[in-house]
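Researcher: Here's the sequence for the chain we discussed earlier.
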Amino acid sequence: ELLRTKDGRMLLARIEWECGHRDSALARLKGYTREFPGDEEFYSQLVAFYRELGQYAEVEQYALMRELINPKSAAARIDLLQDYKRNHNTEQFQHSVDTIIRDFADDRNALNLLANFGTEHGDAALALRVYRHMQQRNLETDSTGLIVTEAYIVAGEYRAALDFVGELGRAHPEWLQKYNAVLNGLQAIASYGLGQHEEGDLYLGHFLKQPDLRTANLTAIANRLIAIGAKAQARRVLAQAVASDLRNQAALTLLVELDLERTPTDELSANIRRLLTMRRPSPKVLRNAQVRLSSDRFLFVSGRDDLLAAIQTALDHSPVPVGQAS
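Model: Thanks. This is the structure I predict for it:
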């Protein structure tokens, strides 16, 4: 039944991957890329899996093949950028960036992929260059403004992030209003990064009060807070994410990881039990929980022995060895 639709095929490949049947997932996606050579999603998922395995030669090989088969594939071009950057091939990297901007001059989706690459690598100058190019071509730049703001944060240029939001907000107040929720979260991160805790708390409070916040947005902001060491603030965000979506595994996993570093609570035990009921909980996180719960610090946690037994059972049934799992 799953094989009848593209979404079903993608889901089946991801399930196989998460269940540890990685060769099968890779073989399935290779078949789909041959059967549907024009489809970007099958290709992107295949190289994402190879990148997760650290098999960068395979990523480069498929990116080169993809570029030959489909010269208009922005995803393949950007995958090659990953390779050039990893190998410190600065000249080829810069040449490829220039050709991507030239060849996809009016393709907003491709340009945003390039800007996102800048964010992923903390290359705020690249993200800003893409933004300025899109302005000159009269392309819609609303989401690109968010990408640039986040790129500054990843680069540790917190003052520049706040200045960019202020500059753009003054020029386009409708943009500020449209993305108010996400911007409050990003401004909170930048403020904490600058050591401005009162301003950070103010922005974070505004962010968490926004109606209809998506769990994905909450988790993304929490991850950025964790990256700058603002773990107490990240926990506050994750607690709200889990409360709003009890089955969100990504948010719950992060919350458990943070709470394992803190004073033991009954809430931690309850969250670990809930995590154990979900599809393929991270063996790495479960192993960490097992080690922590076995220590004297957690000696008086209610139901500790039963919880440790449940964790061990889950680890015994994990399809992926703990040392290889995330």
